[in-house]
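Sequence only, no structure available. Ideas?
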Amino acid sequence: MLLACGAWRVLQLLGEAGSAYPRATLTALALFTAYAIPFMIFIASVDYLEPEPKQLIAAALGWGGCVALAVAVRANPALDSLLAKALSPTFAASWGPALVGPTIEEPVKALGIVMIVMVARSQINSLVDGLVYGAAVGLGFQVVENVFYAVNAVAVRSAEDRLRPVFEVFVMRGFVSGFWSHTVFTALSGFGIARAVLGSGWPILRRLRAAAAAVLGAWLCHFTWNLPMLTEGLSVLGELLVKGVPPLLLVLAITRAAVYREAGHYVEYLRRLADPRIATSMELALLLTHAGRVAARRDAMMQGRYALPEGFPLGNVRRHLNAFRAGQATRRLQRSQARLAVELSRNGEDLRCAAVIRARRQVLAARVRLESVIDHAGTARSQFHGLATPPGAEASQTGWSPAKESVPAAPAPLRMIRLLAAYARRRR
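Reply:
I predicted one. Tokens follow.
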């Protein structure tokens, strides 16, 4: 109901903007929608082992872009007017953005995370989940707010439907201030709310303090970004370094620690199976981090590529195609391993559970698929050498024999893999 009301209000505002400035409105929508795609890819990569349901992510985006924005559109001018009457219009014009914006927007966005907890408590299993939902709420708010900023810039600068103000706002609010804006602020709130939800053994007051402290931290980050005092006398770069970079680094550090902790929790379930067909020790070490998973896929691609010899018919095309297949097969194996780890966690490591059995079969099928890709290339290589041997010629005469033939060592990032594995062992 709240999402529907918020969406109706935002669509009403967009309709008014589109009727006055159709080109500017459509361009702003297209630019900032495309701008949100890399953020969503990053959020999905953060929550790799236990991806959140797409419906809940969409609800989080909708809360930020519809409900929170609809409230801010009404409440911000009202509170700004009260500030001007209580103190002075000059004070409200200078300090209003720093006081009004965070005070209205941060609690409303945090309320969206609370609503997700109330609707789907079982989906909040780690601190990463809170970061993901918080970032999604903040991203939705940030994108829709920037669209209205772009249209307002057109209305203020000219009565004509021009695109230059839209591109200027896109650069300023997308790249100059976008990386440490609402997405970062609300991710911090989501971290605290998830900490409160997961602290089941804590007293209720301690859990409330944890959530309130995180929302207050988001408020302070937002307040500092809008603060006029630190803006005066600073260049754009200096303003970013003082006001924008610290919150971003804080949230990235929290995210990195939370992701590694969650990965270690789930990988431990696979390790206790002690089954190399499910996951080898090297695969477990690489599954812990995004860099490790990418290194494993690159290694498989190199093996698939160099399993075919030089001079093979359509060699370059076949090598690249085989490398792509090996990389995709490795990706499927990693996904199925992550799914099995999650099912083991949810079902108390019951190997007779239907969901665990199904996930285990998917891992084994992905393993067979990966091995078949590599083996198929090796078979093609052997057949190629057999055809290349002159008819009637002996192996001793040609100097080639199957026993002597070996696949060239692939220039895979083995050093990176070993370093990642050693790092994972030290962390354990």
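Residues 274-385+407-427 form one domain.
Hope that gets you unstuck.
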